[in-house]
Amino acid sequence: MTESLRFLMCSPDHYEVDYVINPWMEGNIHKSSRDRAVEQWQGLYHLIQKRAIVDLVTPAVGWPDMVFTANAGLVLGDRVVLSRFLHRERQGEEPYFKAWFASNGFTVYELPKELPFEGAGDALFDREGRWLWAGYGFRSELDAHAYLSDWLDIEVLSLRLVDERFYHLDTCFCPLSNGYLLYYPPAFDAYSNRLIELRVPVEKRIIVAEADADVFACNSVNLGSIIIMNRASTNLTQQLNALGFEVWETPLTEFLKAGGAAKCLTLRVTEPVPTGRELGLQSMIENRTVLLEGHLLDSGLINRALDLIVEGGGSFQVLNFELGEQRQSTSRAEVKVSAPSHDLMEEILSQLIGLGAIPSTREVCDIHLAVVNQMGVAPEDFYVTTIYPTEIRINCEWVRVTNQRMDAAIVVHSTPTGSIAECKLLRDLVVGEQVAVGVEGIRSVRNPESRDQRHTQEFSFMGAGVSSERRVELVVEQIAWDLRHIRDRGGKVAVVAGPVVIHTGGGLHLSQLIRDGYVQALLGGNAIAVHDIEQSMMGTSLGVDMKRGVSVRGGHRHHLKAINTIRRWGGIRQAVAQGVLNSGIFYECICRGVPFALAGSIRDDGPLPDTQMDLLQAQADYSRLIQGSDLILMLSSMLHSIGVGNMTPAGVKMVCVDINPAVVTKLADRGSVESVGVVTDVGLFLSLLVRQLERLTHPLKAG
Ligand code: ARG
Questions:
Q1: CATH code of residue 309
Q2: pLDDT in tens, 425-442
Q3: pTM recorded for the entire structure
């Protein structure tokens, strides 16, 4: 090897768009012209030759993408990490490149099989030699980055690609001399953008507009102050000129059809080994192994866990998967999680813990605690709770957290008999309290019996038009059984209801459920109460005659009249006592001693004296009323149902009924067996439910 600058290229003798392995190739099969490709390739070749020596590797028949020598491997000094192509369509290029490197005096490093990495297409040196930027997300695996850092002895900064048009790092990212960086930020996830911004000062970042990115402006060859690219807008050229760069455009449209341009067609084979580098900061990649157990396949748990890792910016390797043999036996998976930084690892792990995963590595440590030093504010990095039973490890013992709910912090108190832990809302945190931080020493317990999600998925698609009434009936039948059973053993059912219950004629049925002792608590807002009372007093709901379904002249006033009447008497209970209100949902509640809580909102008319306009108090009231519920029936109120969902621990069965499938999915998708979503008209649902309950009570009469 010489001291001069050298590039490796491969002439396009056999170049062709023969298959589709990236979005640019779509619709371009056999659409490129060989003659034009040769001419364009030579244009580039001559430009590079003005400043560097170009070595050539012999093109091989049957491997049309071999022209893209950037993907041959990653060179540093006299070492090369050979590519392991993700797609079969390119794997055949590997031996040709390997032979070229070997015969040119390089030490060739080969990654384990099944660990894709596409060379300099996905790994670009900072031109000052400070570190290596490495891409992952489409063609290369994050785990390969650890090898790069080890073999090439350089710090690796991993960047996650998220736009499939920019599937290789060099399609959207180009480090330039003097520490400049030409790049297209939307091609990266938020974390990667943050990392770039941390390492490259703002005055060195040259952000490329989408129009330039689309013609591969980032896929440039940088030789000192010269930047060779397919095409640049006037804007970009001016910007680069102002920074002292000269842009050499050379058309490469034939290669764009395969998803490559100037940089892809070249591989710099003289990469100086950086000197004076800070040692120790090799790679920020972290690895942890976690264990998952349960009905991993049936419940979709394994998919959710793996998706979560990838969405969180990490990558995974399933080390062991023991599939439960029988339907009732559980499966077990050991998964190695890699994340590009400690912070991301913690983030991913805390979510995996929420899914019931247990970090399996080394000895498990005790929980880390930090002190609250501002009222109502948790320490940085506090563990955010989920609905699932959680345990934390204190002095080598697992302690169950009490008051389990989601979106809270875990507070640890020491008592003479040991430590206790409880979930606490941020606003309730007191200065001096100890709060769990990080993810060490925390586990959440999932019931391995639960086959999870099934119901949710099964019933949600009714909204998509494939539902049959028979299916709704089947769910209703099941719910009726549950209600009956809970009532008969003295259990508790809480109902969350929105005003739609009244508009759809369900008021009658809900009243009956309360009268028959199926409801032990009622939660709603101002509106359901006002509509119920309006209907009871005037036969209309928001001015619509509930019997005939038509608006009554001047009916909209009914609404305010109803509010006013209740206000005059001082509240619902007083109105019932005076005989002013003598039917309806709230009348039944008062008569049966069923407690209710009405949470106010900004749009409330009135409100009724019973509506709690202090929202923190309303949350506390809700939370008190749902304590100890066996089942919560959520009837067409997204707002109040989500509120309730947030404060309910796992293990409480939830039934969510709404005509809007999105609402049902949002609410019922608690990832647990206990939620059932029913997409249907709530009035219809209630009438079916009442009928079904009657059938259970009087099997002969109701037929
Ligand atoms: N068709 C090739 C592929 O999809 C294009 C490779 C472009 N190379 C690059 N370094 N971006 O693999």
A1: 2.40.420.10
A2: 999 999 999 999 988 888
A3: 0.61
